[in-house]
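Regression report. Comparing outputs from two consecutive submissions.

Submission 1:
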Amino acid sequence: MLLYTLPPEIILNILRYCDIKTLYAVQLVNREWLELVRENENTVYRAATVYHGFVGPSAGLMALEDVSKSWVGITRAVGKEFKGWKDVCRRRFEVEYNWEGRGTTPKTTLLRSTGRDVHRFKLDERNERRFVITTHRRGGLKVVCMDTDTVLFELGKHYVRHFAHCEYENGFLIFDRFHPHSLEIWRLQDEWEGSLPPTNIIYRPDEIQLDAPRRYLEPNTSLTNPGRGSFAPWALFTPEHSPRAYRFVYPTLLVGSEWGQELYLFDVPSGTLEEAIPIPMEAVPQGANGVHINYVELGARHAFVCTPLGVLILSRHQHRADSQRQQNGHTQPNGDTNRNADAPLYLDFPSADPGLRIPQLVRHYAARMVQSFGPPSNAAMREFIVTAPRVPEQSTALVRLGEDRQEFTAVHVSPDGKDFVAITIFGIAYFVRDFERVFRGEATFSEIALRINMGTSALNLAFENDRAVIQTHHFLGYDVSGQIHGIFVFNLHTRPPYEVIKTHPHPSQLLPQPAIFPQLSANQLLYFRNPLPLRLVSCLKMTKTAVWLDWSTRALEEVEGKVSPLPEDDEFEIDGDRMREEHPYATRMVCRIDFAPQEPSEEAETERRYMHMQF
């Protein structure tokens, strides 16, 4: 029996298990197949979005407008909502190919209203929000519209301290202040009623914070007629030990204490202290009172602390703060009797494994980044090959030189809390998959971690949507001949979308291929290789369709050919690392590198792309 003689319902059910390339080939068989697919286009391609993982299995019945809202980066870029499920597939494929450097050149945009001295920033791409929050080297805080590049809200530099860090998610903004060293929490004003926070919030704002909208709000914004992007005081968190580093993953704020003695988990919407986790004494270096905290991260079930020696991974819900501690901050936390007594309280990554612990061995036996041969597929990206690690050779050495210090600078965990990426000042990137297996005693870190030697110092990291972006740079005065530095995009290909991109085979690639991330690919962003502005990058973010960082207007104009490059010996710094504020490269604005398709394609162009895509 010929397949197309079956009832249409059965054929459509079969097509649910076909990828896009097969669907395209089916339509080339004869006119009957072509008409069948076209008459049922939305049904066929809606199933294809589930097959490829563009939407989850449970989201197969979601409305098209809901998909548009979840991918506002795409629909905003072309100025049109999705026209149908085939259009969803087409644009999602284009985004994936652009991230791989095989599609169109990403569009680079500077948000000039963010100012000239951006230090940290946060993003809200939700359709009804669409703004960037920035703090600044000289103080102050701004909220700037992504689409119009206009200021929506601004607190003056006399209120928000110099070099303040900030966190934001789901309408809550957090930034730090001195005197006393506390964390201010503000909330989007249009998400709650009234000018004062609810009375049930324990850590209430003080008079200074409550008076800030009247005294320090810049004249170009107003809280009397609040609009999009306007914030109002919500809470003030002053922990027992001054905060050093903090990370907000809604609804929980993780705070590391200044002297590395304790971690605090603070529920931001309710304004209460959920938990205080003491740093295990076994993790504290000999002769010290606590660990030196470089960075903190919050996962679904664990808290992460970057230290000079490693990354501490501590189980959440070890301790619950009782009501007395929530009120006065002096009672010791109670143990959580629901915790499995046999499970370890914490892990010290990379642990005692010499192959991961000793920096010299880590660099020598790590995978390497090698530039791919041949011309780049677009002017803004260059593919790099991630080679497999060398096979360790036997050694008869009785002693080793050097300390165990690796100086971890950042760590980020996947939303499901299973995978993480960590980087060190010495240029090693660790890609760790399903690390909870180590907690359960099913694996060691050396079995689940891929180490990549970036060649130069790794300073900033973003890890979202099965991708990692790492910024590296060299220290001035060091010989960096033959070394690479810049912004690198790693596509891990461990989660949906599936069967969209097939990685390029490279005969020169060392074997065996790293089994932990067998489809890993890497690309360098070519517009961001100038070492002088690169070393000033202080913030790096990633969304579904873009990479964001603070960047120099002058440096971008140079690569675009608008101005001549500055001479390499141009005076750049004074007093060691301190930069000259008037130097052109010291002007830092928020920069967006957008991988979304910028123009809607015609139907014929859509078909051509499907035909030539490699699956």
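Submission 2:
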Amino acid sequence: MRKSLIIPILVLLTLCFSSIAQAAPRVILDGQALSFDVPPTIENGRTLVPLRVIFEALGADVQWDGSTQNITATKDGNEIQLIIGGKAFKNGQEVPLDVPAKLINNRTVVPLRFVSEALGCKVDWEGANQRIYISTKGEDSELAKQEQLPQMKTWVKTITTSGFNVLHCVQQTKDGGYILTGHNKGDLYLIKLDILGNVQWEKTYAGSMRVNIGYCVQQTSDNGYIIVGITRPVVIRDSTGHNIIFGVGNFFVNDQIGTNTDALVLKTDENGVMQWIKTFGKQEKWINESATSVVATKDGGCIFVGEKDYEVGKSKAWMVKLDGKGMIQWEKTYGHNISNKFNSIKQVSSGGYILAGSTSTENINSELKDDFYVVRVNEQGDIEWERTCGGNLYDYANAVQPASDGGFVIAGKIQSFGTGEDMNALVVKLDYDGEIEWQKTYGDTGNEIANSIIETGEGDFVVVGAIDHGITTNYYRKAYLVKLDSKGNILSEIVYNSQTTDWLNSIGLCYDGGYVLCGYKNYGENENNVIQAFIIKTDASGKGI
């Protein structure tokens, strides 16, 4: 009898240990979950992660000497050296390690806590949820203080400086505050808030008789900001109803007035003082270029994406690498159809970038249709794979986010799976190689649009946008948030009710586990309507008002 019980118990123990070994810890860096092509592993109580992913995420320069199997990483005057299977050093002094760097499945993995703390970071382990939190600001930073707050701070702020403000992008900054961009009465708008939503400073950047719009902002390694968007001439109707266009880029051909839109890139210091501004585009009638999303690169430059016309009505998706002075280092175009555009770019922690947007072609009725367009590229912008997703009508990808399992999640709007002309919000999950794992639509009667998406520290996804909310045909567009599990199932959803028509454009994950959202409110339905930007800081459930 005793012998017969031993075998089931051993089997049970084997299964338990197997499940524990498969539960890879999650690594959260400054509030953002890192994704790895090879999952982290725990050995003798120490977490080992792929070398290049963690060093690049921490902003360190890394060198590998294959002949000596020596790894050298430098950042902010600190140098660490690791020898595969051997010793470790910080600034020339040997540091004892419980577990050395090693090769696992032909990949070099390094001890996470040692490399992070040696480069000046704060590391915390949450054993209950198998999560490791890394703060690049260190023990005495505002970030570290914020992580120790007894509860999440929630607040709402409306920008009332003029009758027309729109915010397109928000990001939490290294000091725990927030940076946002958009436009204010036709001028590019940049605003810095503190941790509680108080305005620290705000700037507008005007052009000579031009409309400037900021679509995306990112904090740079020097604590400044890089902003991308568009610039176009001002268009005013005269008393006869004809368009009069002011500003550089006007063209008069056979009494017809044409204009063009250019990509705009602006660099500021940490106080919003402009350091340089660049425009990119051809001075040709109806030929347009736009910059819609940007990532700051560790060399002090940036990469932006958008759309570039190659003839009237036809465009390529566009990717441009700039140096720290705004000079083009290289540019590439993508897409095989009539019209192609990128709306979002994110850096992938295992190297390279993921890009998402739309591509237009003809459907079975010889009518134009749009599909999701997703491209994975290396550091030089060379294609590793590209995918399209959609039906027979109009489907657009607005945002992309790398997932911590090594895959990618894309959010946008789709008409092909909806009812009639209505749009539904669509979220698509791809694996590391770009193959679809699942795709799901969200919404019912009316229109639902997903504009931005993030991954939480728990591996869930949070999407924001707008939803038609009301009865029968009396719809009011409302700000909308939906939280999904890793399979796309709805965990919760919130419609932010107000007395206005609302729209959310962007969501950011905060260091305290909550979210920051931005968009605009429309207080009217006629030409005298008032549009004001607003920001919501929520808790982890999405509740903030």
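Expected: both submissions complete independently.
Actual: both completed, but the second showed a warning that disappeared on reload.
Relevant detail on submission 2: The first helix runs from residue 2 to 22.
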